[in-house]
C-alpha cells in the first residue's frame, strides 16, 4: 500500500516547516509529481496538494472510452467517453471534456493505492 498526502519535509530527521506532496511506501517517504522536480516546498499542505493536482491535470490526463453509456457529470447527456486521471474516472460528454471542468472535479487530499 502506498499512502499519498502532503507531508512536512524533513532534513536529517528535522522538519523544515515546508510541505511536499509525497508517497509513503513502507518506511520510505518520497516527493511525487512536480514536488519531485526541484520543488523547494510549500508553506501549507493545501499548496502542496495544489502542486500535485496541477501535475495530475497536465501529465496524467487521458481520454478513455468507457465501454458503456454513462451520464455526463455536468449535464444529462449520455456518453461513452470519459476522462481518466490515475484511476479516477469522470464520464463527460464532448462539450464537457475539458481540463477547466475536470480541474474543478479533481480533488487531491490523502489517498491510498495498492
Ligand atoms: Zn511542490
Ligand atoms: Zn456534458
Radius of gyration: 16 Å
Q: Strand percentage, roughly? A: over 45%
Counted beta strands: 7
> Which regions contain 5 or more consecutive residues with pLDDT less than 50?
none
Overall 3D form? elongated
Order of helices and strands: EEEHEEEHE
Name the strands of the widest sheet in spatial order. 3-2-1-7
Bound molecule kinds, no repeats: zinc ion
> What is the CA-CA span between the terminal residues?
4 Å
| Helix content estimate | 10-25%
Helix-strand makeup class: alpha+beta
- Biggest sheet details: 4 strands, antiparallel
Mean pLDDT: 96
Number of helices: 2
Task: Count structural domains.
Answer: 2
Please, could you describe this protein's structure?
It is a single chain. The longest helix has 15 residues, at 45-59. This protein is α+β, with helices and mostly antiparallel strands and 114 residues long. The chain has two domains: 2-58, no CATH class; 62-105, no CATH class. The model has no long low-confidence stretch (mean pLDDT 96). It is 19% helix and 46% strand. Bound molecules: zinc ion (2 copies). One zinc ion (ZN) is lined by residues 20, 34-35, 39, 42, 48, 51.
A few lines on this structure:
This protein folds into 2 domains: 2-58, no CATH class; 62-105, no CATH class. The strands form 2 sheets. It has a 4-stranded antiparallel β-sheet with strand order 3-2-1-7. 19% of the residues lie in helices and 46% in strands.
Features:
114 residues; alpha+beta; four-stranded antiparallel beta sheet; binds zinc ion; 2 domains; three-stranded antiparallel beta sheet
Amino acid at each position: 500500500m502506498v499512502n499519498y498526502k502532503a507531508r512536512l519535509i524533513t532534513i536529517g530527521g528535522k522538519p523544515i516547516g515546508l510541505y511536499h506532496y509525497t508517497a509513503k511506501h513502507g518506511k520510505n517517504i518520497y516527493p511525487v509529481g512536480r514536488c519531485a522536480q526541484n520543488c523547494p516546498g510549500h508553506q501549507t499542505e493545501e499548496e502542496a496538494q495544489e502542486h500535485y493536482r496541477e501535475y495530475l491535470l497536465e501529465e496524467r490526463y487521458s481520454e478513455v472510452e468507457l465501454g458503456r453509456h454513462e451520464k455526463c457529470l455536468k449535464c444529462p447527456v449520455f456518453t461513452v467517453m470519459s476522462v481518466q486521471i490515475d484511476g479516477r474516472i469522470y464520464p463527460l460528454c464532448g462539450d464537457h471534456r475539458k481540463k477547466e471542468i475536470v480541474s474543478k472535479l479533481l480533488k487531491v487530499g490523502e489517498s491510498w493505492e495498492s
